[in-house]
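Worked example 2:
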Amino acid sequence: MTGKFDLRKKVVRWESFLVLLLIAEVLIFGALNPKFLMPRVLFGSINNFMTICIVSLFVTFVLITGGIDIQSGAIVGLTSIVIGVLWNDFGVNLYVACGLGLLVGALCGALSGFFVAYTGVQPMVVTLGGSFLFSGLSLVVANLSSNESYQGISGFPEAFTQFAKGRILGVIPNQLIIFLVLTLVAFALLHLTKYGRKVFLCGVNKNAAEYCGVNTRLVTMSTYVLSGFGASLAGILITAYLGTAKSDLGKEITLPVITAVVLGGTSNLGGTGGVIGTALAALVIGLLRFGLSMVGVNTQYLEIPVGILLVVAVAARFALGSGDPLLFVRRIRARFARDA
């Protein structure tokens, strides 16, 4: 896949397979537990994994450049507690605090992006260090509050919490609408702009990109800024949804986020990928976790299928090459035809 989106090339490719997988999940879990198919239950479940969906959209940009970002969860928690402390203990207007939270996330991304792009340190090492750093800063900020850190900060205005808890027509969650809008924005940015083409080119060949006049360091750094911004936005939404600001809200999203991006068709080696695939894969993972919990699987074991999905997705991407789920079958048929 290139930066320029071609609908005709997507008809039988990975995204189509993800749509079928999504439908299969709904049918299987609906058969095992009819409550799963109730519109209010099914749509309501989306709120529980929307953090993963939103963060994964922007982590896609990072992986396309050949990097990786495992610090998003820490930024989610840092954003949440910064908003809570600014509002509860320093008297800052809540919406101003949210704006500052977004700035914090972007700055965190910029810091890690700078080290990746301008010092040549491996992205895994930088973002692992960033994860520890931002988690530690979250605890420092939490200690500035009059509330105990384990209790979190609550009591937010109803207008703020209803923004994340509300539903259109009493069924469709506001967060789903926000996710769809962000998906369109990310899609347009990655697939319909010169910036998006530069992101892809950086992942394909940085040296060639430099010869074409692309500032690969700046482009690479900008993807981490976007990822940090997306994590902060997710931190605001989960804080509003739970009605509580805590420093550890994003501690469990790293594995599902990376899985969603890779399962969505983005190569872990860079150069290929897409926002639509990531969005679909995030929904697949979220519904898988919710469906398993609905049929009685202990929540402690929900990370097992996600880990399996990650391994299978990486293996499948190498086997399928271009991302066409029918390509492998075609190759086998061609091999048999030659042997015959």
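Residues 96 and 262 are 35 Å apart (CA to CA). The chain is about 70% helix and 0% strand.
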